[in-house]
Amino acid sequence: MDEIIARIVANLGTQAPISRSALADLEILLDYTLKTDDTIDLENFYNELSSRNISLNSLTDAISSAMDSGLSSSNSILASKVYLSLLLSPNSPVFTLFTPVAFLSLLRAIRLSVKNHSSVSIEESLSRSPGRKKKGKRNVGGNKSRVESRDSEENEGGEGGYDVKDLFSLLDKMKMVMDLVHLDRFSDCLKALVQTVCEIPMLAVDYWGNTGSFRRLCELCSQVLTEALKSEHGNQGETAAEVLKALAPLILSSKSQIRTFGLLFVVNKMVGMGESCVDIMKAVANMPKYLVQKSPEKTEARGLAVESIMEIVKALDSDSQVGFADYVVNMSQGKGQFRLLSVDLIPVLLMSLKGPFGFDMVDGVENSRGLRLLEALIQRCSDSTVGVRARALTNLAQVVVSLSGNDKSRTVLKELMGFGHEGINGINNILKLRCMDEKAAVRKAALLLISKLTALLGGEFDEELLKTVGMACSDPLVSIRKVAVSALSEAFRTHSTRLVTNEWVHSVPRLIGDNETSIQEECENLFLELVLDRITRVGSSCSANYDPIAHDAKGKKNVSDTETELLYPEGVLGLLKEICNTEVSPWVKKICSGLGKKKKLQKRIVTSLQNIIRTSETQWLKNCMPIEKWTAPPGAWFLLSEVSAFLSKAVDWEFLHHHWQLLDKYKSVGQPQSPLPGEYAGKDKIDLESSSVDWARDRVFLLQAISNVSMELPPEPAADLAQNLLQRLEGFNMHTTEVNAHVKALRTLCRRKASGQEEADNLVMRWVNQLQSKASKVLDMCMSEISDADRISALLTPQSTVRRKEPRMSDTVSKLLANTIIAVYTIGSLVIICPSANLETIVPTIHAIITSGNSDPKSRKQTGPVVRMKQIAPSLYLQAWLAMGKICLADGKLAKRYLPLFVQELEKSESAALRNNIVVMMADFCVRYTAMVDCYMSKITKCLRDPCEVVRKQTFILLSRLLQRDYVKWRGVLFLRFLLCLVDDSENIRQLADFLFGNILKAKAPLLAYNSFVESVFVLNDCNAHTGRSNTNNSRNENRLFSIRGNDEKSRSQRMHIYATLLKQMAPEHLLATFAKVCAEILAAASDGLLILEDTTSQSVLQDAFLVLSSKEIRIQTNHGPSSEALDVEDEGGDSAKNGRAITQAVRKGLIQNAIPIFIELKRLLESKNSPLIGSLMDCLRILLKDYKSEIEDMLVADRQLQKELIYDIQKYESMKAKNTAANMYRSEAYLSPYAAAKSKKLPENVKVASAVADAVAAATARSVLREVNNGASTPLSAMNVPKLKSRTVGQNRESNLRGDRPVGVIESLRRRQSFDTDDEN
């Protein structure tokens, strides 16, 4: 040891820094002393230093210099070990050796060694990785051993490496040193220690990961921090605050290892120490609030922060938890990022800490804490920031699911959410608004909440809310439609009320026509589950559930609602009734067809439907009701007719035959409008008409079912049925709805029972010719009778200038006319199933009917009687047009001849029914003869402005289908005329138009809105400046028909709605191009004189252009907007940021190069003409440049006057806005409670609004004082004790009063005195 001491002392005697060898010798000396506890050698070392005049401070400085050298991690670690061993050696002069500088050097050496060691190891591993192959199996079992032995492998060679055990030894010795050295006098050293120890796990996690070395490292760090929290090292509260502050980055980290280390230390160690130390517990209680302030904004990181915060909150006592909950409630009223974090914390507080915040308490005090949290969450559902309200709705759905299991909680939830109470703050009203939100994320979250509220509501659904969800099933976004379907289906699955059933049936089945395949499949599966399976269950058990009640003395009793519910539970009757609705039945047919082709239909559905019909008939007879009035439950025959096409073997022929005989037996012959015998004809006309329709409808569906199962019929019943059908058709006395069913059923029977195709065609042709011959005879006979009656009437009636009345028909002629109407309709039906039929004898007669009374000279050349069928028999006239249309579909030559007649009748007819039928026929012609009808498309589109809503809707639907199938192209005026449907008087048509432009057109023709936008501005204002020519009278009338002229508020709002719809379909680059086109083709045209500014239509075009350029739909979000808008779209990547910068530059460039010069020239022109449009121009400029206030001087360098005016207008607008906001805030405070009013005293963040609020408060105070003065009340000034000044002597005053002489100043002040008027009236 003497040689070692000599070498150490010799090295310290030189001026050079202490060498590595000297540090190694010193380590040997100190280790020997610590192991043997023999201090002789160490005392000799100290004596040798003293003899050489080397102080202990010099030794400390030398070691500190070695720790700070930074040449290699091994030297720093070795020096650090030596320094700590020196402090721990027996009889060590600790207070002499310990210096703050040396201790800080020690901490720096530890931190840098860990950091450099991790970075060097990672670089070496990356440098070796390219040589390895990525393919092949990984040696999972050997990974752990390689990682744990990596330290020794990498530290054997190279000067910079060190053994990880040295780091463990350092931390262990650090803990022991802290028992000797109390850091209460060295606050900087304590802070540095805490920061270093907390930083070590974060630096080492990338290298060590989940290895045992890392766990050992974290354990040692925890021990050091625990030691630092002792009272010997200073105020425990301050130390705890430093520790928590240093641990915050670890707790908020995305790496689970270090986050776990930080949380475990706080929850286990510090909370445990806090039980005996109030200061530590206070610091821990404030830790969640500190983490809230430091939490990140990204979604994933924010979620981890919420989990970490809640782990700490759970470890606190109930009082601290309540305090944090109050803090969260206040935070929900703060800035955007804090509001977003609060809505994430509230549901976790409610669901995790049900003790202090649950609703199952008896006392209201505890309940109020949870209620405050829930109220804050509900308020955030209407937040101004998109991300906040979307997240609030999603989290509220989680809360509802969590708290709905308890009856007490469910009751409190319903009361708090305002179910059953109308008001703007009720959850129903909030959900209706959020389901129609402009942001997709909010709509999706609202629909998710509705689906979760299903169990809570218990069937108490708001009708308007259900309609809103139904409308969401047609949302432009696929994800929204899926969520809406799920929400509505969940409500229908749980509660089969009438409102829910109706909304589901009218909203979900129509999605079978959706463009998304997954939605179509979901629609089929839901229909199978919620409709067919439900009907199957009810049909299988309806007879078993029925318990007949005792009849009264008369033996007749109507079926009560309770009995009906027992017969048909789960609302099956209402469901069947709705699926046969005319708006729903086409989609149901398509769904049944799809399910049948996929072989998903089961035989049980047929059996169940038959049971439902049998039970209905049995129940009717048991109540002694006449069978003539019985009809099956609406929809039962319809659904059976659809499913029987794929389940023909499951249908019972005896069942069909029985009901066919029943319906046919009581059909009143000669009265196609009523199925009842004459004895019931005069009882109730409305009931008869309704029963007649139901009766005929049941016969139609029954016939369809019979035709579907015709292959399964025995030969003799099939022949009898065919003969019966033919006889019924020859009688021409059926309802028109039955004719097609009879014809189709008869054709199906002939084709399926024939041995071959040729035989089947011959059979069909034979009875078709037979029916046509008889129909022709009936038609000729009717025309002859009507002509004779008209001729006799003309002879008996004297000629007069007065228009004579039409003669009253005899009963014989009326009956013959009714049969003729059915005969004409039958002719059309026969042409559809047999286009090759010979119609040479029928066409002239039908031509005579449709051209009767026509002034066309070509019609006069036709032979035959000419009578006024339009006036005498309007029904026959309408059916003749319908039959001619079907004939033209079968004969192209006739179609070419008669197309002009159809178009002429479409324009001139006064019958809405006839116009509707002709529109349908023209749509069919367009499919069959596309080129022939194309030239008449402008005439057809005029029906979009028809006075009748049914005609407009029919035209819109038919043209939309033709456009989707490319039979009609979006060119010419077609697109511009469709725009008017967006503002149609009918809400139904407006919804269809929104769906067309928002879904179909956006996907099929995305550039159409962009290409036609500027032209639409001119067309909607009926301005021809863009065409450069004047229109004729006819074209001018058509243009006015499809324009919205006028500057009134209604016309302008309708045009702006159309513009906004078009702009919403455009991509950002098209919005920029549209902005440039509007400036170039409208504003520039006006400044160049192409638009006549004195013309009202031109003024409307120019004003619309200003409104469009300043609308929010054409504006693209840039980084000039407020920071709160950044929360609207979360987790934006680098590409989004680059795109945002590119768009910002493009917008700025477009403003400077295109818009600003045009605006300057146009402003000068408008000023020269004293045009009232100057105000609109300035408003537009102000809105365009409000985000570029700092750049206005550069942009408007060409017009300084405009620059000053615009800056003044912007300042004035902001000032007025601030004053209005302040006035609203001040008025609202008058209705607040004292607690809420005290909270509202905080000044707003906006300086201008705060100043305006202060001005408003001061003005209100001044007005109140002036009002009191005018009323003669005492003021605070009058109550003050002020000294009284003596005036002149009494004699002088009396003398002056007698003379009437007063001081000049007093008289002047009285002259200038004004009354204390208030401005309350203003």
From TrEMBL:
Location of the protein in the cell: Nucleus
One record GO biological process: meiotic chromosome condensation
Ranges where the record places region Disordered: 123-159
Keyword list, A-Z: Cell cycle, Cell division, DNA condensation, Mitosis, Nucleus
Classification via InterPro entries: ARM-like, ARM-type_fold, CND1/NCAPD3, Cnd1_C
One GO molecular-function entry: histone binding
Chief location: nucleus
Source domain of life: Eukaryota
Any one GO CC term of the record: condensed chromosome, centromeric region
Domain Condensin complex subunit 1 C-terminal: 914-1085
Name of the protein described by the UniProt record: Condensin complex subunit 1 C-terminal domain-containing protein
